[in-house]
Amino acid sequence: MKKEKLMPLAAGLITGICNGLLGAGGGMIAVVALQRLCGLPEKEAHATAISVMLPLTAISSLVYAFGNAVAWDVLAFVAPALTLGSFVGAKLTGKLHERELRRLFAGLMMAAGVWMLL
User: How far is residue 92's CA from residue 106's CA, in Å, rounded to a whole number?
Assistant: First the structure.
């Protein structure tokens, strides 16, 4: 198989396993994988990662829902806020320069890692 086809497959497999295993972080991993393995520029990697997250998240959500692992009462309040936040974030991404987006993304990943370790 050619490298240009193998790298997107590797990026997808790594992202899918991490998302299903960890229940989160698939988008962050997808962005990095799409940049490093597929050579996508920053904004294109973010947009592509968001686009692939829909089917990935839908499948993981179904598995968790059928396993009775979803806090539906919390989801009812969190989902509308996340939807609005996603819209605002997508609009802001279009206004940021590549370098600003990269720094913001890296800072967020580092902050999330530190927070999880505490």
Answer: 16
- Among 44, 48, 4, CA closest to 26: 48
pTM of the model: 0.68
Euclidean distance between CA atoms 67 and 51, whole angstroms = 26
Q: Residue 30: how many CB atoms within 10 A of its CB?
A: 26
Rounded distance, CA 46 to CA 100, Å? 13
Q: Which residue, 21, 31, 79, is CA-closest to 51? A: 31
Residues 19-58 have pLDDT tens digits of: 777 766 677 888 888 898 899 998 899 889 888 888 877 8
Cα–Cα distance, 117 to 51 (Å, whole number): 29
Q: CB under 8 Å to 9, separation ≥6 — which residues?
A: 1
- In the DSSP assignment, the letter for residue 67 is T
